[in-house]
Amino acid sequence: MRQFFSDVKLGRHCSVHVRCVGLFILNMGKQKQAKKYAKMKRMISLKDQRIKEQDRAKSQPKKKEDPSAIKEQEVPKYPSCLFFQYNTQLGPPYYILVDTNFINFSIKAKLDIVQSMMDCLYAKCVPCITDCVMGEIEKLGQKFRVALRIAKDPRFERLPCTHKGIYADDCLVQRVTQHKCYIVATVDRDLKRRIRKIPGVPIMYISNHRYNIERMPDDYGAPRL
């Protein structure tokens, strides 16, 4: 700096020195700006004395309950098919909803799905697959191409789904709750637990390299385990 001012007095300053000093002065003049935070509105406390009594919300008086009055309770409505001890909508030919795990475990156990279902129930069986389950199998990729080929078997009945963006298990539970004419074929424990809460819906599963049925009435000739 001393050299620069001496050069200025002597008239020997150059453009390089002027630029350096200009940058130095600009850097010295900058100030750190504080970060701007969102302004929060202050809320008045409910106990504040500035609130008038007329502006305060009045507490509604509680109604006294009459102990002798009859209490109204909503009873869930059950379909008429569950009037007897078993579901009257079930009967040959059986319509069986199949999920992804059931197809994969059937391939692992080397079981033909349609023939094994008929061996289990001793009647004609129609395996059904929903759009959600089909989409779930397609997302699994090339590793499960055998399961996809089985799901596209012409003996399988394709059930269209009207909803959008729903889990396959939720789709099956929703369909079985509305229509009691289906049997659910699954190996998933969580789905089994959810289906057991719905009355009148049998469950088909795999054990000992064969299909077994759960919660099937004896009148239909279901095999006893």
TrEMBL record:
Region forming the signal peptide: none
Electron transport found in the keyword field: no
Subcellular location: Nucleus, Nucleolus
Domain of life: Eukaryota
One Gene Ontology term from the biological process aspect of the record: rRNA processing
Described purpose of this protein according to its UniProt entry: Part of the small subunit (SSU) processome, first precursor of the small eukaryotic ribosomal subunit. During the assembly of the SSU processome in the nucleolus, many ribosome biogenesis factors, an RNA chaperone and ribosomal proteins associate with the nascent pre-rRNA and work in concert to generate RNA folding, modifications, rearrangements and cleavage as well as targeted degradation of pre-ribosomal RNA by the RNA exosome.
Family per record: Belongs to the UTP23/FCF1 family. FCF1 subfamily.
This protein's name: rRNA-processing protein FCF1 homolog
